[in-house]
Design brief:
Elements: H1 27-45, H2 51-71, E1 75-82, E2 86-93, H3 117-124, E3 127-132, E4 138-145
Keywords: ATP-binding, Kinase, Nucleotide-binding, Serine/threonine-protein kinase, Transferase
Organism: Streptomyces spinosisporus
InterPro entries: Anti-sigma-factor_SerPK, HATPase_C_sf, HATPase_dom
Amino acid sequence: MCEEHTTESTLRRPGAQRTMPPRSCKPADARRAVERAVAERFRTTCTRCDPAALDDALLVVSELTTNAILHGGGVTDFRVDVLGSGVRVSVCDRSDRLPVARDNADLLRRQRVGGHGWPIVCRLARDVRVAELPAGGKCITAVVPLR
């Protein structure tokens, strides 16, 4: 699992946005929500977002939602907030299992397909938290720097 860090305050800030998914939240839906939230925040502050940093945030949200669909029984909640120096995405699913990084090869040293999502999230996000949900399942929150 990723090393845990403390995220910024969860208090609502100007330009922050909360997005609830439709019944089936797809990675493309989550990416569009992140793009909208970031565009809105930078439109109100008259500064520019680093395109490479936005690409990192879009990749992280794609990996988190894809993993929730493939391994967590589907996305049960999705939130995006643009903070002062980054974008915080939270993806919740039905599974209590913690994410793990898989080996790239099997016992016979043959290359496996997949297994790269969690390491990508851990590498690109500044802060990553995994929280159990009271009704079951988990919520993974990642903060990706935008500058």
